[in-house]
Amino acid sequence: MSDTRDAGRDAGDEGPAGQADPVRGTARGCAPVPLSVLDLVTVGAGSTAHAALRTSVEIARLAESRGYTRHWVAEHHSMPGVASSSPAVILAHLAAHTSRIRLGSGGVMLPNHAPLAIAEQFGTLEALAPGRIDLGLGRAPGTDGRTAAALRGPGRLDEAAEEFPRRLSELTRFLDDDFPDAHPYSRVHAIPGPAQGLTGRPPLWLLGSSGYSARLAGELGLPFAYAHHFSPAGTLPALDLYRQSFRPSAVLDAPYAVIGVAALAADTEAEARAQVLTGALSMLRLRTGRPGLIPTPEEAAAYDFSPLEREFVDGWLANIVHGVPDEVRTGLDDLVKRTGADELMLTANAHGGEVRLRSYGLIADAYGMTVEVPAAD
User: Fold this and answer.
1) Which parts of the chain register pLDDT below 50?
2) Distances from the Cα of 253 to the Cαs of 36, 182, 281, in angstroms?
3) What is the model's pTM?
4) How many CA atoms lie within 13 A of 241 on its CB side?
5) In sequence order, which residues have a C-beta less than 8 Å from that of residue 59 and are 6 or more positions away?
């Protein structure tokens, strides 16, 4: 994995996000690999989606100023505690408030949408923020089965997942505007796009929490992002499968693997524990069919967990790297050593936006991350 990391460090400070390579990030300070942000745009009890989206802007600005490589938002539906149902809309807003950091979807759930619609949305984003957009794609619905049926139409759940490779190929051809002449879509153009002279397009990433997308990403020579933050048991098998199946492509000459990591730094261990417990209780409620806003630390502390619930929560918390900054740094360093990940994408789930914002700042401090943002013209 050293070749791809060295390429990221040698990329220099040219172009968006201080990197010349559209895929490989640049490690800042003494971080072992590039660090990025996965933003779920969480909404806490007593707050609003408006406040959550405002916090996302603040996090993106902080991430840009401190040398994080990219800021991704993920598609979720019918979850009161998550306000990221429309990644393309959010990314357009973030693009208007940043100038260098890469912005992307982590991910857009391809089976929920027509490939042409995604190509148009992300072609528009590329036109708004040239060279700064990533298009991460997932195969899951990003929600429960009932909501997925409402998104896709009755009877299309299994069909949509099985057709993922075909839809991915179709999306790629729309982005490149290169359907064969005999294809029914040969005269259909994704606009904005190459038909208008747009020369760049977002790099494609495959996302997953199983071996399916890992293998497909490897076979296609695409970068791969694994959801370690909610499926840690499968991390090493998926990354091994990705690396073993990797075939060099025009995009990558060697594998490039990102893992999503739940991480939260605070000024004290007690505060960090109290904050991550709010996310754990929220996930418990989601998994038991009771989704809601992210509870307050006081509500989480007062909750009477049953033995089975306590077992779930303890297991969930064991996968979150949390504590004071030095503890988080050590935990992240150890994770890189264990997985060989080429980049870490940090997600901080807690009740308050200011807590998440401070966490990203404290982690940057722990690694001595800083980057000079050019003055506006």
Assistant:
1) 1-15, 17-18, 376-377
2) 22, 32, 42
3) 0.91
4) 18
5) 37, 39, 71, 356, 357, 360
